[in-house]
Specification:
Length: about 280
């Protein structure tokens, strides 16, 4: 626990690592100090074959075990001792501008609508938008401060003038004190699952058949910026991505780069029309 705190791991990461290591030890009914690479492989096979976990879900388990044995227990083990299954690459499903508009019109609550609009307008993760404070909205500089985003990194994102109007309307109605979007528990922000539930309810009301989650709005933010001609590097900074390759995946779904490219089929000369088949002979 102290090793994670010293390295400033996010609170959710610390909780996840503890859960993963505890499950690993309980499965073999021994202290992790007495377990090794063979048990790690057996545990991963069990999770994959018996528990039917997807490769992406095994990432947290492997991350926790790597931290435990390499950092805390200082075992000189290599990456091969923590086999990571290859994750299938899936492109995000992106909402069009029209679908975004329809979706927002289907959010009945002013508070929930403001939360989801903020997530889209600034490209925020759901954990970032629920932890916004009133003081994070800087209307003089027209920026939003994101405190302790993913990997504990702060950043600034744009404050849309249109979003500022919505936020002021919401503030006049709710008068939030500390947290911009307070939850049902006094002194705590709104829960992530509450935002997810509001998102799913709005999707059903809108009639949109594509999957819509708070993270879908972040995908749409990046894709729509790219389609509008924004530089990929600038989008990376706004999204808070560590690697440019993470941001570059939106090049694969942006219509400005995919659909605007001319197919070589369109460069071919028009072929002669296909002759009509001869009429069938008449027998009676």
């Amino acid at each position: 626990m102290h090793d994670m705190q010293i390295r400033n791991l996010a609170e959710n990461t610390q909780k996840s690592y503890l859960i993963q290591v505890t499950s690993f030890a309980r499965h073999f009914r021994r202290s992790p100090e007495l377990l090794g690479p063979e048990e790690i492989r057996a545990w991963l096979i069990y999770l994959r074959e018996e528990r039917k976990l997807a490769p992406a879900s095994l990432g947290a388990t492997i991350g926790a075990l790597r931290f435990l044995y390499r950092v805390t227990l200082k075992r000189p083990w290599s990456d091969e001792d923590f086999p990571l299954p290859k994750k299938p690459f899936r492109l995000p499903v992106v909402l069009s501008l029209g679908e975004i508009t329809t979706f927002f019109e289907s959010v009945a609550s002013l508070k929930h609508r403001t939360i989801l609009m903020t997530a889209y307008a600034a490209g925020l993760r759901v954990s970032e938008v629920v932890h916004l404070k009133v003081t994070d909205i800087d209307s003089k500089r027209m920026v939003i401060r994101v405190n302790h985003g993913k990997n504990r990194k702060d950043r600034y994102v744009m404050l849309s003038p249109r979003l500022l109007e919505i936020l002021r309307l919401y503030w006049q109605d709710a008068h939030p004190k500390e947290w911009l979007f307070p939850g049902s528990i006094p002194g705590r922000p709104i829960a992530r699952h509450a935002v997810g539930d509001a998102c799913e309810l709005a999707r059903k009301r809108s009639g949109i058949t594509k999957p819509v989650t708070p993270h879908s709005l972040r995908h749409a933010f990046a894709t729509h910026l790219l389609e509008a001609g924004t530089d990929v590097r600038r989008i990376q900074l706004l999204m808070g991505h560590r690697s440019l390759s993470t941001t570059s995946r939106y090049l694969k779904v942006a219509t400005s780069t995919v659909c605007a490219t001319t197919s070589p089929f369109d460069l071919l000369p028009h072929p002669a029309p296909i002759p009509s088949p001869p009429p069938a002979p008449q027998y009676f």
